[in-house]
Write a structure and sequence with these properties.
This protein is of the alpha/beta class. It has helices spanning 11-22, 34-53, 59-68, 75-79, 93-106, 122-126, 160-172, 188-205, 210-220, 227-234, 236-250, 258-265; strands at residues 3-7, 26-30, 69-72, 84-87, 112-116, 135-139, 149-154, 176-181. 43% of the residues are buried. This is 3-hydroxyacyl-CoA dehydrogenase.
Length: 280
Amino acid sequence: MKHITVIGSGLMGTGIAHVSAQAGYQVTLYDINEEQLQCARQTIEKNLDKGIEIKKISEEVKWRALSNLHLTTDLSEAVQHTDFVIEAVPEILELKIDIFKKLDKLCRESVILATNTSTMSPTEIGAATNRPHRTIAMHFFNPVYKMKLVEIIKGLETSDKTLEVTKQVAKKMGKETVTVNEFPGFVTSRMNCVIGNEAMNMLSEGVASAEDIDKAIKLGLNHPMGPLELADLVGLDTRLKNMKYLHKTLGEKYRPSPILTKYVKAGRLGSKSGQGFYNY
């Protein structure tokens, strides 16, 4: 594995491209939007500079990582020499399936196709291709360059070889991995969604303020972030999509809190929009 292609230069795609390039892979970051790609490169450089500032990396590591990074709006060019693809587009199943169909036609037969998702089925996505045995899910966490965990999820047809290669790719990125048998929400998203949804319901019921709910969970249960600030970081629109999917597949326990739906309708999407449960 020498070359990784990342599809989508949003928050997660940018982070995945960062850790891949820093790990020594040749990385092609693809997006349909040239301006978004340039923003992604600036974000990566900014985060590398932070690493230098806190003495986590050297100047040499920064410039080597940036030299490994290539940007393109041409999908054929993006996958021409790739060994491994990580798709990181929004959590919309139809969009992911459409991209995987295109990737299946453009990529060499040996290329592994991974979807970065917190809830979606690699079995269903892989079934749309001629390589379900080389299709897998990787759940990265935000911010990718800081968070150590990657959940790796096998689909029904995913081969053991694909799983092992994927674990090695994540390890080279400096990540710890857990292997999860496919089930909606995997491990972390199911837990996060339940805790976050209950926190939102408590806020609606006037049990406590957002600040005090988060403080109680951080200090009382030793969570590094409160559930409401975490939801703001993830993006309330993304959390709502996840909740709707889990509600559909796992039942009533995952019905989205009304306040979450209301905030998304109002454009209060969390830190990325400047307002969610907190102001930014």
